[in-house]
Amino acid sequence: MKLCVFDFDSTLMDGETIDFLADALGLKEKVAAITEMAMKGELDFFESLTTRVRLLEGLELSKVDEICHNLPYMPGAKETIKELKKRGYKVVVFSGGFRNATTYAKEILEFDADFSNILHSKDGILTGLVGGDMMFDFSKGDMLARLQGLLGISEENTIAVGDGANDRSMFKHAKTRVAFCAKEILKKEANVKIEKKDLTLLLDYA
Predict the structure, then answer these.
(1) Catalytic annotation, pick one of 9, 19, 114, 137
(2) CA distance 37 to 56
(3) Is there a contact between 125 and 59 (Cβ–Cβ < 8 Å)?
(4) Considering only 39-43, 109-113, 156-160, 168-172, which range has the smallest mean pLDDT?
(5) Closest alpha carbon to 24 in 59, 71, 55
(6) Could you count the other beta carbons within 10 Å of the beta carbon of residue 174?
């Protein structure tokens, strides 16, 4: 058995979920600036996540779902996942974003499991609080090591694909470390670099 772990935002999906959500409140530029700093490794991920989610307070949960169900997926995402599964890979998504997006995407793109965060809401309105599986800079690496132990999969048989600073922790546990249209901080730790928005190019390394 082999394992391929994808980041979601700006990797399987073309953009950042939280920026799309912030746009509904007229706060896209403010939130996108914080996102950019976090992905470059200039801000602590936990602090940047909680700061950005706080700005979403008051957004209706129904609007969140509507936005998350209409996100643009990266070219080649579905075809690549299908082919990886055909080649014997378990395909998993680790996202510092939100289940509203990743769990819906699982039905569309047909990967095996998603680990992400949950936007807290009360009476159908976001409270500005967040919790979940991927809250910290180390979360993806931590979860990858646990999954490898659970499934009996070695680093040798693991591919990790991401674009930002919070993907570095999973690179430590994967032989094939793919920087996909990535920030410089991640490229430095990758052994595969893909500069074109076409996920099928990954298949050359799987």
Answers:
(1) 9
(2) 18
(3) yes
(4) 39-43
(5) 59
(6) 22
Active-site residue, 9 included: yes
Sorted by sequence, the CB contacts under 8 Å of residue 120 that are 6+ apart come out as 126, 127, 128, 129, 130, 131
Tokens of 127: 């409270």
- Delimit the domains of the chain by residue range: 2-205
Residues 162, 169 contacting (CB under 8 angstroms)? no
The pTM of this model reads 0.95
What's the DSSP call for residue 134? -
SS3 127: strand
pLDDT of the residue at 57: 97
User: What is the DSSP secondary-structure string of 152-166?
Assistant: T--GGGEEEEE-SGG
Q: How far apart are CA 189 and CA 196, in angstroms?
A: 18
Q: What is the pLDDT of residue 63?
A: 98
User: Tell me: domain 2-205, CATH 1.10.287.3510, correct?
Assistant: no
Residue 80 vs residues 11, 111, 156: alpha-carbon distances, Å: 12, 10, 20
What's the CA angle centered on 15, arms 163 and 52, to 5 degrees? 90
